[in-house]
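User: Sequence in, structure out. Go.
Assistant: Echoing your sequence, followed by the structure tokens.
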Amino acid sequence: MEYDRLPSKPVVKSLTSAQADFDAWLAQNSFSLLRDADGIDWHLVMSFTQLPSELDRHQGNWIATLQMGVDITAQKLVETGTLDHVDDARLIYLAGTNPIPLRMKKMQHEAVGELAMRDKISRILPELRDNFNKLSLHQIKKDLVGRWVDSLSPFGELERLGVERGGLEANEDTF
């Protein structure tokens, strides 16, 4: 910048508006939270592994593992339309009031070299966020809740976790 030609207006009008613009930019470019079409925020965890490459001895084989998950109550799933009070009453009853851990299947992506992995991830993450925001995941979430309930039921975990069962007595005929 030339000192004899200083700008007539301030570059940043206010620190508050600059901070708000920066925070908005960070929110738009953050990939740690992905919002689905129902408005539920899923957490995205990325991990990277580097292995020796068979193709190039000077660059490693990079493996990126992406895992998405959310802890959500059955009540919130009913509010978003994923579960129906009438059709899914038994599933809601078995899920109880505790948060349900929903975890998607891990996705793995490979690339040779760090720069290739950065390129690949920089293409994958915005596409994943956009697709995730457009798609209705009702059936996937419903299946994940069913799997979670099935995994707890055979071992009596529902009682150990203190799941409230809506006033019905648990007997052989209920299940």
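User: And one key feature?
Assistant: Confidence is low (pLDDT under 50) at residues 164-175.
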